[in-house]
Write a structure and sequence with these properties.
Elements lengths: L6 E6 L5 H13 L3 E6 L9 H8 L3 E2 L5 H6 L2 H6 L3 E7 L1 H9 L5 H8 L4 E5 L3 H5 L1 H12 L3 E2 L3 E4 L5 E5 L3 H13 L9 E6 L4 E2 L5 E2 L6 H12 L3 E6 L11 E4 L3 H11 L4 E4 L6 E3 L19 E3 L3 H6 L8 E8 L3 H12 L3 E6 L11 E2 L1 E5 L2 E4 L3 E2 H23 L2
Helix pairs in contact: 1-2, 1-9, 5-8, 10-14
The structure holds cytidine-5'-monophosphate.
């Protein structure tokens, strides 16, 4: 039986590098992939719809409001049908639109309407690429799961030289192949429960205690575990992230609600505690806003919150086969994480340094150390979605080993 050929949606933006996208189409088709091209208005200044259509063997889509296109294939369908989206060349303008959720032409609308992370091959003048606005847009898009290939350094059409040349078609093709191959269904049939984000512990109806967790790492894990075929439940504290498609999301505020929500999802096969749960809450949650009084600031008495990770790891009959914890430390990362592994009774601790200046909390990158009772391994600093991909592959391997040891 032949596996279904991958279907690629290629967005061609406006840049001199657009001519290289013709070669990219040839490579994709050569590998048996189906290619549909969306050409932006600016892109059409550099390559013609006719060359793109001839090479892709499909009609080229240019217009958001084309009734003919809509009757043939609605624009939402166009992105839903694709296994992957590639943007080449990805101009500064396209990246800015995607980072800000603009949807004023077909390409930007498709990117906003899609639940697939795109692969972008940026091409622009090096000053545009290094401008803080583009840096911020790239960071935001990485956080949404977009992957980047290039740009490369070298001479550019404008006569200047620097980072901004679009990656070569072969490089884009290889990056795409790696992304598609990266998704073996290693967790098919498994139920994975993940906690993510901070918790908010109320002081009174308007004030709360929180922390700087963005939830990015937990959300990225949920998406990768879903792509690996797992049934995923994401128990999330308050975050500013879109709910991942195809994942059951339970939104909570406090540690106690999170603990209760996690309990309600058992049994599961893998539990991943990626949330930054508040260790303490105030003993009394005032029913009314605490007033500024004459007797000075109020003294808040703190009490301990339930430790979700420790209670799931010691759950007796319902203990998931694999229980994973995270440790955000600001000093002696490995030593503290190792102590936590024993204290919590989990199988693996993913430790990271969130100390000042590391930019990990709320940022898009993470450098982790994996700690098990048998040893440890340190990984290089990587984008959080890449960390998520590697972690899920690692968890799947551990799960399979545990299963073999313990019997199915
Ligand atoms: O003790 P600490 O908060 O550093 O431990 C971190 C690990 O424990 C994380 O995996 C976190 O999600 C989990 N945790 C928990 N419930 C708590 C506190 C931490 O699940 N109340």
């Amino acid at each position: 039986m032949h596996a279904k050929a991958s279907s690629i949606l290629l967005i061609v933006g406006g840049g001199i590098a657009a001519y290289k996208s013709l070669e990219l189409i040839r490579l994709l088709r050569g590998a048996g992939m189906e290619v549909r091209v969306v050409l932006t208005k600016a892109g059409a200044q550099f390559v013609t719809p006719l060359s793109l259509a001839s090479l892709s063997g499909n009609k080229v889509y240019e217009d958001l409001f084309s009734l003919t296109d809509e009757t043939e294939m609605g624009h939402i369908e166009l992105s839903r049908q694709a296994d992957a989206i590639v943007i080449a060349p990805a101009t500064a303008d396209l990246l800015a639109k995607a980072a800000n959720g603009l949807a004023n032409d077909l390409a930007s609308t498709l990117l906003l309407a899609s639940d697939k992370a795109a692969l972008a091959a940026p091409a622009m003048n090096w000053r545009m690429w290094t401008h803080p606005a583009t840096r911020r847009n790239v960071d935001v898009l990485r956080g949404y799961g977009m992957a980047f290939v290039g740009p490369n350094e070298g001479p550019m059409a404008c006569g200047e030289s620097g980072p901004g040349r679009m990656a070569e078609p072969e490089e884009i093709f290889a990056a795409l192949r790696a992304r598609l191959a990266d998704r073996p269904k290693t967790l098919a049939g498994r139920k994975v429960v993940i906690t993510a984000g901070p918790t908010h512990e109320p002081i009174d109806p308007v004030r709360y205690i929180a922390n700087r967790s963005s939830g990015k790492q937990g959300y990225a894990l949920a998406e990768v575990a879903r792509d690996a075929g797992a049934e995923v439940v994401l128990v999330s504290g308050p975050v500013n992230l879109p709910p991942p498609a195809g994942v059951r999301l339970i939104s909570v505020e406090t540690a106690r609600q999170m603990a209760e929500a996690v309990e309600s999802t058992l049994p599961c096969d893998i539990f991943i505690a990626a949330a930054a749960v508040a260790d303490w809450r105030t003993e009394a949650d005032a029913a009314q806003k605490i007033k500024k009084g004459f007797d000075g600031p109020p003294a808040l008495k703190m009490v301990e919150n339930p430790d979700i990770l420790a209670s799931i790891a010691r759950h007796g009959a319902n203990r998931p086969r694999l229980v994973i914890g995270f440790a955000a430390e600001t000093e002696n990362v490995v030593a503290h994480a190792r102590a936590k592994l024993a204290k919590k009774g989990c199988d693996l601790i993913v430790a990271n340094d969130v100390g000042e200046g590391t930019g990990v909390m709320g940022g898009s990158e993470n450098a982790v150390v994996l700690i098990t009772p048998d040893g440890e391994q340190a990984w290089p600093r990587l984008a959080k979605d890449e960390v998520a991909r590697r972690l899920v592959a690692h968890f799947a391997q551990m799960y399979a080993a545990e299963e073999e040891r313990g019997g199915a």
